[in-house]
């Protein structure tokens, strides 16, 4: 049972050294009891006390990691219900499912474009995380052939899906993943599945029709020595699934109920169409899914899911940033202008994509504005003439051009006079307010 704040306090050094970042050991103990800090933050806790505090210091949702040939997919270790409270850390893995009633060649043909899929989103390469293989035939040889076919296409982590321990054993025997995820243990097969998971160092999905039964199964399986568990909640519709996932997350975080403190598995039932699967995946990304499976690989389906996942699992208090510096667009020469923007990634890519797409060469000076957009940074005093001038000098912009023309974003026209004073050798222009108007401005004004 988890310890209270007072019980934790009695095991701490009680020196009030403040090295943990809190004014007193009692304050630290209360935060530790609430799962808001880690025990390692205290530099003076004894080994004996650390052992006693292990349960209270452990994350309320266990971290489960799937590994395969250098690829990793992690889920769990989350400590809040809502991302604005802190942030979410481990993005749910997205897997494409195939079944063993297809031939190996059909499987390879279907998975090849999914394996190769990669799209750049604000400087981040979005890809799929792995593949799931489900037994539809109930035949171990067919299942093993399907697993082998997937392994010949991809080295990413695997999810193996069968309730038959013999079929699962055949698939595990040929799987190349170091730590696959096997689905699923239930009230009838849990002992055999637990033995397979332990033998092959696999994570194990546990499924049941009620939370009480699910909690009972996880305790039994954990007693068999299998620690990496994932929960599959059976819900008849999206509303039921949402209710169950929220209950599990609240029990784990608010009640410290260890029997349900595991990542969640989300997969459609057989025959569910692409629209329903997309809604199920969206719900899983937004509400606590850890490993998500869909049956269809379509770029128009996968891309919005990956973008949504990136947005949900981005710290809302830390904007996505690009590295400040000077970037070359379309191989600029010394006669081309210097455009200025901030290092907020969406702002940078909006400007860069418009200029690049128009085929116009330019130097893009990305000023350090602490990840804020142009107007936000200007209002906060993080994007002004002095900072821009410093970055012009810091990144050697004058050495790259012969005609010293610098273009400010239109929303910050008020800075033009100040920038002329800071950079007397430069011609300061005020560009358009919107990035989409940059190509026309460059052709008509800067030509």
Main sheet overview: 8 strands, parallel, barrel
How far apart are the first and last residues' alpha carbons, in Å?
Answer: 73 Å
**Which class of secondary structure composition applies to the elements?**
alpha/beta
Strand content bin = 15-25%
- Our Rg estimate from Cα atoms comes to 27 Å
Counted up, domains total: 3
**CATH topology descriptor of the largest domain:** TIM Barrel
**Overall pLDDT metric:** 92
CATH architecture of the largest domain: Alpha-Beta Barrel
Briefly, what CATH class of the largest domain? Alpha Beta
Beta strand count:
17
Strand order of the largest sheet: 3-6-7-8-9-10-11-12
- Return residue spans where pLDDT drops below 50 for at least 5 consecutive residues: none
Total of DSSP H or I helical runs spanning 4+ residues: 17
Q: What coarse outline follows from CA principal-axis ratios? A: globular
CATH H level of the largest domain: which superfamily?
A: Dihydropteroate synthase-like
Q: Roughly what percent helix?
A: 25-40%
Summarize the structure.
The chain has 447 residues and is an alpha/beta fold.
Walk me through what this model shows.
It is a single chain. By secondary structure, the chain is an alpha/beta fold. It has three domains: 5-57, Electron transport complex subunit B, putative Fe-S cluster (3-methyladenine DNA Glycosylase II, Chain A, domain 3), CATH 1.10.15; 64-312, Alpha-Beta Barrel (TIM Barrel), CATH 3.20.20.20; 325-444, Rossmann fold (3-Layer(aba) Sandwich). It has 17 helices and 17 strands. It has helices spanning 5-11, 25-33, 47-52, 54-57, 104-116, 140-153, 165-174, 190-199, 211-223, 238-254, 274-286, 299-312, 345-357, 374-379, 385-394, 416-422, 438-444, and strands spanning 64-68, 71-75, 93-99, 119-121, 124-126, 130-134, 158-161, 181-185, 203-208, 229-233, 264-266, 289-294, 325-329, 338-342, 362-367, 405-408, 427-430. The strands form four sheets. It has an eight-stranded parallel β-barrel with strand order 3-6-7-8-9-10-11-12, surrounded by seven helices. Helix 5 packs parallel to helix 6, helix 6 (140-153) packs parallel to helix 7 (165-174) and helix 15 packs across helix 16. The termini are far apart. The model has no long low-confidence stretch (mean pLDDT 92).
């Amino acid at each position: 049972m988890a310890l209270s704040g007072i019980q934790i306090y009695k095991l701490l050094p009680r020196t009030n050294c403040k090295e943990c970042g809190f004014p007193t050991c009692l304050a630290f103990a209360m935060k530790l009891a609430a799962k808001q800090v880690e025990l390692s933050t205290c530099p003076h806790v004894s080994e004996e006390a650390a052992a006693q505090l292990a349960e209270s210091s452990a994350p309320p949702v266990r971290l489960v990691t799937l590994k395969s040939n250098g690829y990793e997919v992690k889920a769990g270790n989350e400590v809040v219900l809502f991302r604005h409270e802190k942030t979410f850390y481990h993005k749910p893995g997205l897997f494409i499912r195939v079944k063993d009633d297809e031939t190996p060649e059909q499987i390879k043909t279907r998975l090849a474009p999914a394996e190769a899929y990669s799209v750049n989103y604000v400087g981040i390469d979005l890809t799929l995380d792995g593949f799931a293989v489900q037994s539809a035939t109930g035949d171990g040889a067919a299942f093993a052939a399907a697993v082998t076919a997937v392994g010949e296409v991809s080295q990413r982590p695997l999810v193996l899906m069968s309730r038959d321990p013999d079929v699962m054993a055949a698939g595990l025997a040929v799987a190349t993943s170091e730590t696959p995820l096997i689905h699923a243990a239930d009230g009838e097969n849990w002992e055999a599945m637990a033995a397979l998971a332990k033998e092959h160092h696999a994570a194990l999905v546990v499924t049941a029709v009620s939370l009480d039964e699910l909690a009972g199964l996880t305790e039994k399986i954990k007693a068999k020595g299998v620690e990496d568990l994932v929960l599959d909640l059976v819900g008849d519709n999206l509303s039921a699934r949402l209710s169950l996932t929220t209950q599990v997350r609240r029990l784990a975080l608010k009640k410290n109920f260890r029997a349900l403190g595991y990542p969640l598995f989300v997969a459609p039932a057989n025959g569910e169409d692409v629209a329903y699967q997309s809604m199920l995946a969206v719900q899983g990304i937004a509400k606590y899914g850890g490993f998500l499976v869909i049956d269809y690989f379509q770029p128009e389906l996968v891309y919005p899911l990956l973008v949504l996942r990136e947005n949900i699992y981005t710290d809302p208090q830390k904007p996505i940033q690009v590295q400040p510096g000077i970037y070359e667009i379309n191989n600029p020469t010394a006669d081309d202008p210097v455009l200025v923007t901030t290092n907020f990634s969406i702002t940078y890519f909006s400007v860069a994509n418009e200029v690049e797409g128009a085929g116009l060469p330019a130097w893009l000076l990305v000023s350090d504005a602490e990840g804020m957009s142009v107007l936000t940074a200007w209002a906060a005093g993080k994007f002004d003439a002095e900072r821009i001038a410093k970055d012009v000098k810091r990144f050697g912009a004058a050495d790259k051009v012969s005609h010293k023309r610098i273009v400010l974003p239109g929303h910050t026209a008020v800075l033009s006079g100040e920038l002329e004073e800071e950079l007397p050798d430069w011609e300061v222009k005020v560009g358009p307010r919107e990035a989409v108007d940059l190509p026309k401005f460059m052709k008509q004004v800067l030509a």
